[in-house]
Amino acid sequence: MTTKTPAAQVERHTCPKCQAPAGSPCRTSTGKVAANYHTGRFALVPALKAELAVKTPADRNPGKPWVVREAAPEATEATPGAAIRIGYARCSTVGQELQSQLDALAGASCTRVFSEKISTRVKERPELENALTLAREIRAAAPGRPVILTVVEMKRLARSAAELMSLSATLQGDGIQLELLSGPLQGIYDPNGAGAIVFAVLAVSAEVEREGIREKTLEGLEAAARKGNHGGRPTVMDADKLAVAEARRAKGESVTAIAKALGVSRATLYRALGEAS
What region holds the Resolvase/invertase-type recombinase catalytic domain (predicted)? Predict the structure, then answer.
């Protein structure tokens, strides 16, 4: 049995279930050599954690009385490598700038940074999904190295508290850490103990703050509308164009010709004439 076989890697560890020492196979409750190594034992080998079973080699005599073999050197814990940071930056509109976030993520030594200009109201954010996919791939390929998703602030990840808590739970389940570069929870987020409570409170507070801003914006737009100031793009058909269109239409000119002369679409002209009648 070479040292590269799964069985050899397993036998470098003492079994936490049957207490078989390093160098010996697992044993059953009746004192015989087990046909498979106990799950808790081969799970100690990172490369074998996903395996459903690791069989005992034939030369270990499965089913025969268990005997103590010469102990193999115990496996030493692998020294974790440096953390791998995946950065994510987001802003809601094209007019907003991303550079300050990108600079902060670069300063945090992110291996790769994903960014997009998209509202958190949009359920599918492609670059966030790409960042999460890469983090999971790195986590699987390098189980001994911490993988961290880094963002400048909490609101860059989600809009609602429920969505933020769900994403946090997903990251935790995938073994990916979350890092915030600013705010009350600056640093690596600890999902246990008081950290989870503070995280939930801040998530709800951020959601309430966003809703407050939204309500004030809508109130401002309504107040401006009452004064005759309507937001949005200026109308294509003003009063002068409408007067010209009506006059030419009264002379029997076609809608297509009038629309072309005024530089508007036929649909716009039809709508304006309909509203005026």
Answer: 84-228
